[in-house]
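Progress narrative, Year 2. Work on AraC family transcriptional regulator from Streptomyces olivochromogenes advanced from sequence curation to structure prediction during this period.
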Amino acid sequence: MIGARTPAYPVSVSASRLRRVAVLVLEGAKPLDVGIPAQVFTTRASMPYEVRLCGAAPGLVTGGDGLSYHVAHGLDALAWADIVFIPGYRFPDRDDPPQAVVDALIAAHDRGARLAAISTGAFALAATGLLDGRRATTHWHYSRALVAKHPLVEVDENVLFVDEGSVLTSAGAASGIDLCLHILRGDLGVAASNHAARRLVAAPYRSGGQAQYVPRSVPEPLGERFAQTREWALHRLDEPLTLEVLAQQAAVSPRTFSRRFVAETGYTPMQWVMRARIDMARELLERSQRSVERIAADVGLGTGANLRLHFHRILGTTPSEYRRTFAQGE
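Result:
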């Protein structure tokens, strides 16, 4: 017996039950960041949402990347919304948004609206104080700036998004899709989220965090005391590199080398070596067809299992998934 087919996504919802979404467009707003929530939550039979673009005031808002936006609503939209998205914008580390914007975000939160920042929109959200003592993320390029400007925020630069309940943040622009799909899963269920993902030609779930998109996981050194030693080590990653070996190359004691190395890089010597090995593995995965086992040996990690373990710990994904995402075409 064949029963009635269950819809793969929600059917039409009456206007009285529409969830209200405001997209707050600030000066310098990035076009992709603005467009993602506006498109994901667009009103249609399968999406019971109403979207309003707003700004500090109705009218023209100068955006980033040569675009401007004409928004029909001012901050009154934040008093109307159930969810407020804050797209990323240019130069977020310079100035805070206007006080009226900060106050309106706080008021929206106080009455129960969720606030969701995309990329550098986290800076505007952090200006409200609502991220203090909470985990948050932003584009990896700005993570240190967010820490410096808002030291009470627990910045996690290795994730695609963070859900703290009433406040949510996402990494670089495309991570806004991951955040929106996550919100959809919570609001309407997995079927609706998967339907939206197919419509966007996006992955319902992405493997790993944004760490895999950072050009290199080895940090920029703050000093050059051991620059030659680091360069020497980078050409010998397939060899045994212990603290004693590195200290001998630097002509100092292991204790002195370890203390000064941490001061320069923020990592212990062995942490730095591991990240350098993972970076080399990333490059080999991108540019060669070598097996994971062969790459593990080439970067000094011995076995494929060892490479997979450390690769996932540092980048939040597997070597195979990374290769599928970043391997260069023939």
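Confidence is low (pLDDT under 50) at residues 1-15. Strands lie at 19-24, 49-54, 59-62, 68-71, 83-86, 114-117, 135-136, 154-155, 161-163, 167-170.
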